[in-house]
Fold this protein.
Amino acid sequence: MVKALLVLLLLLAAPFLQAQTGENVLLVVNRQDPLSRQIAEYYAPRRAVPAANICTLSTAPVEEISWKIYQEQIEQPVADCLTKAGLREKVLYIVTTAGVPLKVAGSAGSLAEAEQSSVDSELTLLYGKLKGAKFERKGALVNPFFGKRDVPFRHPQFPIYLVTRLAAYNWTDVKAMIDRSLAARNRGRVFLDLRSPDNDEGNNWLRDAATLLPRDRVSIDESIYVLYNMKEVIGYASWGSNDKNRKKRWLGFEWLPGAIATEYVSTNMRTLKQPPDSWTYSTSWSDAGQLWADSPQGLSADLIHEGATGASGNVYEPFVVGCARPDYVLPAYLEGRNLAESFYLGLQFLSWQGVVLGDPLCSLGKP
């Protein structure tokens, strides 16, 4: 009886355990971009990604593309890879690489109307499309995995792919990100930095995160001061450049291998082109000298450059409710969920603006 019960429990846990391997990853490579190929060649053997799970497409390595190019040169080739190799069900995570276009141009607007989107967020819908589902182009779609804290991610219960991106400013940063993911361990502290004056919605999610994390592993700051130079950082969430008290671009953190970060910043994944070290944030959108890629706001790739292993961001305006929520992301990650599942637990919308930088299989393991 005990043996039979053990077997049943192992069978029930099997989808979750299997999700931790390279066999559940589809690695998307742009043959037109040398960095994309270099990343794939380095990552695939380290995560034992089978050759059949490497999807090579050919498209111009530009950051912004049209819907036509997205459908013809990215979505359809990825769909073909999944179908021809019989991977539609087995693959849970799609990993794009630097050099695969980042965002799809379209009209701006509300959650119900905007047609702008990140390439990665659109690719999450491909599982449903391969099953015959139809989606309107305009507006955001509710993520069926959002907030499902205690449920393993698996198909067909959750009819989406979780898409992350192995990308940063350069090869050195991406290689370091991969190496850190392989060295991740469950140690260190989470730092939560609220914005003053108070913002009920975003700040309350930070407060909720603090209550859900182990008390001895979280520090929360509600003052006007900004957290700099913190040690042994395994998790971080803040308002980033949207905190008027944030005067420095670089946090000066000691990031531990496996550390992840999320900030409430509208366009922090608008580009992966590296600004000069002298560039810093500004509150002025009218001073062209303070803009980088048409914005004065912070950049998610700065967090990777400084030593984080994973980070979320947005290619266009997501609104605060469309940012990755720390009260779901950080507790899940410290409890042993992998990077992809942790971030997508906290992303309320798909077919929207979100991008997750990092190795989807990165995990701290159980505490």
